Every structure is written in structure tokens, then in C-alpha cells.
């Protein structure tokens, strides 16, 4: 995946070396954490003016780290001030451009907290007005629920200050951009993720400046409330918000059925879409779902019940809609043998230098991290911050271990009394390794451990895919008549969903027009009849 380029030219703050290094670290972490990562709709990025990015907050530290890695330019992030008190992590937050936000629940002096926040919000507004970029999570806290929580007013208040300052000083108008965060499972290693950059929000005209202070407060408050409500609505649309994870799961599976059925009807080979393509497909499915729920719920009720029954049956046999759609008419023994050979071929590559280096450089800190998380879970730490703790402790444990093991291996290779040094010097070619400068070898090893870990993860991902394919072939060769029944039912469901969807103008269609800021997708869906 190609990371977005930083903006250049006047009006864009310069990015220092420390920030670049920390962002590079975050990008390395995210590339390792996710097996697939997409950034979509970067053409929505304006070329002029400061930007405030707003996103929902479903996954603890994963969210700001991913967005810090993904969003271009020098990014400031608002984070609760207690995080800055953490050893090491607090310094990293500051160096990465984070700004402390003071919450009343974390303080014994509400008035002082309010005063500090007012100063911080004013500084953030000034920075955005001059072309700076800020990331903010308007919900105010992380959570593990399927829908967006009520947005707080901080984002709108900062934006009002930024717009006023930009107008007063003749700067380009700042922009407010919602960001959709989507994970196949953010709490698990090597899952998939997508960052969707939405269009800049259309904001109402800012209130005029009047002499009456009380009237000014009322005018500003009315504007802030209106924009906050729009931000909340935009986040719900950008995140495909639903009232329950079950509804989100049904939408996601139904999207998969439609994708497979369209391929079958067009005579094309069924291929898995990228995660970002899947997110866009789910957006279309959600828009249609909400439209019929509002206009004609009886029309989709029986189809929803049939879909639930079908997906429950697939789950009972550990199959997916893709497995059903991609099943060949007669799964041959040769295909099954081919799947076995493919798995063994990838497994054989995992026994080389890359894997052994990855084990030495990454397994000890990984296990230490696992034990830390096990202890945290025993103490009843909330599930919503598991990924935060996992990433946070990894950022400490892995570098410390890499430094230690690099020093140890350097000594083992270059100390004249070391058995390895003596053994290498028995052959003229291997003896060349003992002539390497110790400092150079140390830094080569320091870079090699994380590199070998990432290479190993790529091999591991291929091994998992081949293992799943092997299980798929094994399932296909069982109970042929049952699979035939599943295929017929799935094709029936897919055909009905396509018929319903083709009767609507949905997101992504040529004649689709984006809803006004604050409106949901389904409010702009129209019938073609």
C-alpha cells in the first residue's frame, strides 16, 4: 500500500525529523498489525487551508496510531491529558504532535480544567486557521459498540475559532473532513483495515461578531450545536453505523452474497474484493437496507429472515458466502491434492533464515506482551482498550528487546573468544563476517529484526490463506447434496438482493448525488421506478 504524500508549498507547516521518524514507526506498526490496509478517496483532500479530521473511536490506541500513519501532513491529535503521564509513551505522544485535553472526570478542579481546555482549544483553532491539521475524536472516548456515540462540542468550537481567525487574517478557509474507520477485527492481529476520507463538510455561515457579549454567546452556541449534530450524523454515515453488531454482520455478509452473485450472472470468475471495495459495497447495502426499513419494511422482512437462517447455517459448518459461491460443480481429488501441495510449498519457505530471525527477534517480546495482556484481562480491564494496551506495551517491549538481542548477537559474532567467532574463522569466506565493524553490525541487526518479522508475516499470511483454501476443499468434498442446497438458496437470496438494489439509486451509481452534510445516505436514495 502506498502512503499518502505530504502537502508541499506555502501555507503548510514544515514536518520535523522527529515527527517523520515517529510516523515511520507507526506506519511500520500498522503494516505489521494489518495484513491489508487501504486509504480511499484521497482525492477529497483540499489543496488549500487547514484541516480538522474527525473520526469515530471504536478501537483504542489503534485508531490514532492508524490515522497518524495514514493522514498526510503534520498532524496534531487531541488526547486525554492522563496519557501524557505514562512513562515513555507520554514523551512519544508529545513528539508525535499530540495535544492534551483535560476531562472533568479526570480532575478535582473543574474550573481549572475548563480554563486549560479553553486555552488549548484556542491554540488548536489558531493552528488550523494558519494551515495546520488536527485529528479529533468527537465522541470523547473509545468504545466497543457498533454505533457512533453522541458527539461532544469541542470539534465545532475549535472549527468556529479557526474559521474566524482565518477570515480575520486573510488565510484560506479551513476544512472539516469526516473519516471512516473500518476493521474486519481491530482487536486481532493480521486482520484488514480501511481509512475512508469523506468529502469536506458544508458548514453554515459563522455567526457575525456583535458587541453584546451575551448575544454573541447565544449565537456561537447555536452554531456549535448545529455543527456538532452534523458531525455526529456524518460520522454515522462514514462508519456505516448500526444499532447492533448483528445488523452490521448481516449487511457485511449480504454484501458478499451480492458480489458473488453478480460475478456468476456476468460469467466472470469469482474473486475476493479488496477490503476498501468491500466497505463501499457495504455502504450501498446499508443505504438500501435503511431506505426499505423507512419506506417499506414489509418488502424486505421475509428476505432478512431467510438471510439470517442461511448465514447461521454457514456459520455452523464454518463456511462463508464465498465458499458457497466459489465451489466447483465437482470438487476433484486433484484440486484437493493441489491445495495440499500449495500449503506445503509455502510452509517450506517458512523454515529458512527469515523465520528463524523473526523468531529470535520478535517471539520473546511478543510472548512478554501476551503475558502482560493476560494479566490485564485477569484484572478486569475493559475490552475496548485491549488493543490500546497491546500496541502501547509492544511499542516499549519490542524496541528494548531488539537493542538487547542486537548487542548480544554482535558480541557472539565478533568477540574473539566466542565459539561462533572461532567457528566462522575456520573458513576464509565465513571469516569475512568477523571483520565487520561492530557498530555497523549492531545497526544492521537492529533493522533486520523488525524487517524479518514483516517478511515472516507475509509468508504467514500466505500460509493462512492456503490453509483456509485447503479446509475449503476438504469441506467441498463432503455432503455434496447439502452444498447444492446451500448454493441454490444463496443464489436465490443474491438474486433478490440485486433486484431490490437495481431498483434504487445507491452510493457509487453514476446518477447518485451525495447527501447534504448531516444527512444519511438512505435519505438520498431514490427509487428508479
Put the structure in a nutshell.
The protein has 3 domains: 17-238, Glycerol-3-phosphate (1)-acyltransferase (3-Layer(aba) Sandwich); 245-330 and 496-527, no CATH class; 338-476, no CATH class. It has 16 helices and 9 strands. It has helices spanning 17-33, 62-70, 89-95, 110-129, 154-169, 213-238, 245-266, 275-295, 297-316, 321-326, 333-349, 353-378, 386-414, 419-424, 438-476, 480-502; strands spanning 34-40, 51-55, 75-80, 98-101, 133-136, 175-183, 191-197, 504-505, 526-527.
Please describe what this structure looks like.
Helix content is 57%, strand content 9%. With 529 residues, it is an alpha/beta fold. It folds into three domains: 17-238, 3-Layer(aba) Sandwich (Glycerol-3-phosphate (1)-acyltransferase), CATH 3.40.1130.10; 245-330 and 496-527, no CATH class; 338-476, no CATH class. Strand 3 (75-80), helix 3 and strand 4 form a beta-alpha-beta unit. The chain is flat. The protein starts with 16 loop residues before the first helix and ends with a strand. The mean pLDDT is 87.
